[in-house]
Design goal:
single chain, alpha/beta, seven-stranded mixed barrel, binds alpha-methylisocitric acid, binds iron/sulfur cluster
Length: about 775
């Protein structure tokens, strides 16, 4: 599988039978009862699972006070850190400046985002290894030096590998990827963060989070027929929308929750990122125990069984959820229908029975060009076996798939096992392509033939995100999200409006045939197998390992400190762009081909905000340069302002920075000299990333003030010199007709975060403390 593996001499390859970091897990479980008792004493009420995990991971140790949800900033001590290659570069470039010898908690790097899906897994992988060797070598040597576990390209997607190897019930982890939340499927509190947050924890410092609010989702009944775990979260996304989970942990419970497989729970938690939730989780149950044992972690299952009552919410909580959660939703799995969400946003949820109508009403192209399954969200053994079952039915019924079809396995463990069990051969027969164990098309690493023609077309996938241009770079591709089973059925039919529950298909012989509901196995009956999972352990003593970054590299660049705040108000700031509507991190710092520059801040800054729509002309990447009166591309115009010493601000709509954890979306505008981001509301990770990087992250107190910002405005900060927690700031908008008006803007900075702003970024403070 590893066509051209990165080899670092002296590294040992770990086999499946070893459990990672068992001593750490033992220690977490040893202190659990005492810490829960302390939490009960301060809160004086029954506890949800989320509260149990949060209170057992306080930086201070045993709780000494109850924390107010949605209000208190609290310091936590996560058990571990995970990073993927596209974000690890920035995280580790920052960590290298923190002056530490070794990471303070177990940490891993996963090479998954930089592999382009083009022909098939083997050749695509060796091409990626050649093309990205500089980055892979950097990551492997930094990992080796600082005691970080390194998963080679081809080993799999971070979240799947974490679920298989590292996640454990009751644990807390952070990861430099928004879908870190996937590990909630194994009963963790796992949270996506920017690299600067990861750096803090790896450097042995506390990790700060506003104590989340709690949403309880009670699942009753049992999945049946065409429904799968994916449909639960597709429905939840429809209910809560892309911002409904902001600042909240979602906790699932009830008999329906217990009936789901562990990997199905992972899928639900994974896509919790799409409703903006801080994370999602499930209480420890038999499905998790089965999964732990089948992935070689019998010791962890035994340990978890030892404190089982602490690894789920209290009985009183689940009996009267309204009393203990801030919001409660109930879903009956018996009545659930398969959903198709999209296009362009993951919360536009259409039940399959209404798709014909919705497609006609919205004029969506109904011909499905491509069906894609896999990704970190949906590539479990169960998912693949159920999809393979449908492919097999189609083969046996002489139905030829009308759309192209591809599979991106989540890990080498799954890929090897599904090949052994004959599923790959079934997909082959269907004419499907198996891409490398990597993100691939999910993040625009897809050499889709013809995408450059920018034709309007429909694809269906089982990934999690479907923002404009995300999969193939074509803004006219309508991407719909569905379960792997439904994606497979729609690819077979080649029709978005095909409802496999009721509709028939005509086969090669002209006969009318019907697909039966998919059947599959939760876990492989013969057990999982793998020859080389793709892991490299770090050196015991990495002090002699050299990490070099070439000054002439266009892929890696050592970081320069951002300038400190000069202590005065910002005056005569120009509006670089007033973004209209959805502005996700994909719009602020596109992925796809730009992933190449994730380790080089100046180069990647050339994509800053090129996907955002300019409110004033409705166009992308075309903004007025107030210095010349001409229109230009956003990065070029901003570079001109920077060169002329003109301060700028970016204005945005609601849920600005939704989506990814990529801190590039905060660092790039900062690097280019933007001073503030002023929006109706922020997505959580992005807001923290902006604060960490020394940017002003501000919100309109009165959302309608967004309308007051005009293209030619000059903006003065009136009272930045008295910037303080809980105190709004005042801006004076000077319009070009000579009038002016003041508006109030809010923020969520606490005293420590204001220090980050003053220092020019959190890293500058760490550097100062080193000296
Ligand atoms: C994503 O799914 O958008 C990504 C690519 O995995 C990102 C991370 C990144 O931008 O590198 C995420 O979800 O955080
Ligand atoms: Fe990779 Fe897609 Fe998962 Fe992000 S969502 S980690 S790009 S597979």
């Amino acid at each position: 599988m590893f066509a051209n593996p990165i080899v670092i001499s002296g590294l040992k390859i770990l086999t499946m039978s070893q459990v990672f970091d068992l001593e750490m897990i033992k220690e977490v479980y040893r202190r659990f009862p005492e810490r829960i008792a302390a939490a009960r004493a301060v809160t004086n009420k029954p506890l949800t699972l989320a509260e149990k995990i949060l209170y057992t991971h306080l930086w201070e140790g045993n709780a000494t006070a109850a924390h107010e949800r949605g209000k208190s900033y609290v310091d936590f001590a996560p058990d571990r850190v995970a990073m993927q290659d596209a974000t690890a570069q920035m995280a580790l470039l920052q960590f290298m400046q923190a002056g530490r010898k070794k990471v303070a908690v177990p940490s891993t790097v996963h090479c998954d985002h930089l592999i382009q899906a083009k022909v098939e897994s083997k050749s695509d992988l060796s091409e990626a290894v050649n093309k990205n060797s500089e980055v892979y070598n950097f990551l492997s040597s930094v990992s080796n030096k600082y005691g970080i576990g390194f998963w080679k390209p081809g080993a799999g997607i971070i979240h799947q590998v974490v679920l298989e190897n590292y996640a454990f019930p009751g644990g807390m982890m952070i990861g430099t990827d928004s879908h870190t939340v996937n590990a909630g499927g194994l009963g963790m509190i796992a949270i996506g963060v920017g690299g600067a947050d990861a750096m803090d924890v790896m450097a042995g410092m506390a990790w700060e989070l506003k104590f989340p609010k709690l949403i309880g989702i009670k699942l009753t009944g049992k999945l049946n027929g065409w429904c799968s775990a994916k449909d639960v979260i597709l429905k939840v996304a429809g209910i809560l929308t892309v911002k409904g989970g902001t600042g909240c942990i979602v906790e699932y419970f009830g008999e329906g929750a217990e009936s789901l497989s562990c990997t199905g729970k992972g899928t639900i938690c994974n896509m919790g990122a799409e409703i903006g939730a801080t994370t999602s989780t499930f209480g420890y149950d038999d499905s998790m125990e089965r999964y732990l044992r089948s992935t070689g972690r019998t010791e962890v299952a035994d340990l978890a069984n030892g404190i089982r009552e602490h690894l789920t919410g209290d009985v009183e909580v689940y009996a009267n959820p309204e009393q203990y959660f801030d919001q409660v939703i109930e879903i009956n799995l018996d009545e659930l229908e398969p959903y198709i969400n999209g296009p362009f946003t993951p919360d536009l949820a259409t039940p399959i029975s209404q798709m014909k109508e919705a497609a006609a009403k919205n004029d969506w192209p109904t011909k499905v060009e491509v069906g894609l399954i896999g990704s970190c969200t949906n590539s479990s053994y169960e998912d693949i076996s159920r999809s393979a079952n449908l492919a097999k039915q189609a083969n046996e019924l002489s139905i030829k798939a009308k759309a192209e079809f591809s599979i991106t396995p989540g890990s080498e463990l799954v890929r090897y096992t599904i090949e052994r069990d004959g599923f790959t051969a079934i997909f082959d027969q269907m004419g499907a392509k198996v891409f490398a164990n990597a993100c691939g098309p999910c993040i625009g690493m897809w050499a889709r033939v013809g995408a450059e023609k920018k034709e309007r077309n429909t694809i269906v996938h089982s990934f999690n995100r479907n923002f404009s241009a995300r999969q193939d770079g074509n803004p006219n591709t309508l991407a719909f999200v569905a379960s792997p089973e439904l994606t497979t059925a729609l690819a077979i039919a080649g029709d978005l409006t095909f409802n496999p529950l009721t509709d028939t298909l005509i086969n090669e012989k002209g006969e009318q045939v019907k697909l039966m509901p998919p059947a599959g196995d939760e876990l492989p009956s013969k057990g999982f197998a793998v020859e080389d999972a793709g892991y490299q352990a770090p050196a015991e003593d990495g002090s002699g390992v050299q990490v070099s970054v070439s000054e002439t590299s266009d892929r890696l660049q050592l970081l320069n400190a951002f300038p400190e705040w000069n202590g005065s108000n910002i005056e005569n700031a120009r509006v670089l762009i007033k973004a209209k509507g959805k502005c996700t991190t994909d719009h602020i710092s596109m992925a796809g081909k730009w992933l190449t520059f994730r380790g080089h801040l100046d180069n990647i800054a050339n994509n800053t905000l090129i996907g955002a729509t300019n409110f004033f002309n409705g166009e992308q990447n075309k903004v007025k340069n107030q210095l010349t009166g001409e229109y230009g591309e956003v990065p070029a115009v901003q570079r001109a302002y920077k060169a002329a010493g003109v301060p700028t601000i970016v204005v945005g709509d609601t849920n600005y920075g939704e989506g990814s954890s990529r801190e590039h979306a905060a660092m790039q505008p900062r690097h280019l000299g933007v001073r503030a981001i002023l929006v109706k509301s922020f997505a959580r990770i992005h807001e923290t990333n902006l604060k960490k990087q020394g940017m002003l992250a501000l919100t309109f107190i009165n959302e309608a003030d967004y309308d007051k910002i005009r293209e030619n405005d000059q903006i003065d900060f009136i009272d930045l010199t008295s910037f303080a927690p809980e105190k709004p700031l005042t801006l004076n908008l000077k319009h070009d007709d000579g009038t002016s008006e003041t508006i109030q803007v809010g923020h969520t900075y606490n005293a420590q975060q204001i220090e980050w702003f003053k220092a020019g970024g959190a890293l500058n403070l760490i550097r100062k403390n080193l000296n």
